[in-house]
Amino acid sequence: MPTGVHLRDARQQLFEAAERVLLRDGPNGLTSRAVTDEAGYAKGVLHRHFTDFDAFLADLVLDRAAQLEARATALRESAGSGTVADNLTAALTTLFGPIPVAIIPLITFRDELRARLRQARPGGGIAILAQATTAVSDYLGDERERGRIAADADIDSLTLSLVGGGHLLFADRDAGPPSTAAVSKLVTAIVGTFVTRHPG
Question: Right CATH number for 1-49 from 1.25.40.10, 1.10.10.60, 2.30.280.20, 3.40.50.720?
Answer without folding.
Answer: 1.10.10.60
